[in-house]
Amino acid sequence: MKPLRNKSLSAILSTIVNLIWWLEWLGGAYCIIMGIMAGCIRKAYVFIIPINYDPITIRQIYAISKKGHVGILNSTNGNLAFGIDANFQNIVMLLIGFGSLYAAILIVTYQLKKILHSLKQNQPFQQLNILRLKIIAFVLIGYSLVQWAFVIVVTRILVSTFRFPHMDLTYGFNYNCLLMGIMLFVVQEIFKTGLLLEEDKQLTI
Q1: What is the DSSP letter of 69?
Q2: Which DSSP string corresponds to 99-124?
């Protein structure tokens, strides 16, 4: 098997993923700094979440409590924006939520980085790549399930916090990540077959 050239597709993809890897770290640091500044200066955060709802033209959503914040619903893209206080409980919840999402992104990017590096070295069929594909598949499937549970919890909180006149919130499920995870399980089986063929080839030499 001839070694891949530096200008091959795998080398280009490896460079792109490496760049994305460092951009993710820079983006994470930027978000932490901006989050701290927003909490110290404004004493509150503007929380924007996507929601699924029946078609409606109303935009302003009022809190059930008179002391609560007013939410603004963008009916074009289904984003609901409302303010939350920058207290300890809310900060911890935001850190757990966004930290988990950020960790999942880093795990997937790191595994892709290692897989593409092995492709660039012309060593794609190895046990580590099979494990890496499994990790990515589990992360994607787990993300889709956790996101679904998150949507259910947030929807119930919104219904108990805001008034949604003449509209009903609905639950959404991310099928894309689930299907990608299932496809990666199939790909790792292909890599497993390729590894067996590579081992048989070495034994016959």
Answers
A1: P
A2: HHHHHHHHHHHHHHHHHHHHHHTT--
Instruction: Tell me the C-alpha distance between 80 and 73, whole Å.
Output: 4
Provide the H-helix boundaries in 50-87.
none
- Delimit the domains of the chain by residue range: 9-204
Which parts of the chain fold into alpha helices (H)? 9-41, 88-120, 127-161, 175-204
Segment 56-65, tens digit of pLDDT: 555 566 665 5
Query: Strand, coil or helix: what is 167?
Result: coil
pLDDT band of 111, cuts 50, 70, 90:
very high
* Residue 99 CA: distances (Å) to CA of 31, 35, 95, 202: 11, 13, 5, 44
CA distance 143 to 102: 11
Q: Given a cut of 60, is residue 69 above it in pLDDT?
A: no
Greatest mean pLDDT among 3-17, 53-67, 73-87 lies in: 73-87
Prediction pTM value: 0.75
Buried (b) or exposed (e) across 32-61, using 16+ Cβ within 10 A?
eeebeeebeeeeebeeeeebebeeeeeeeb
Q: Which amino acid is at 53?
A: Y
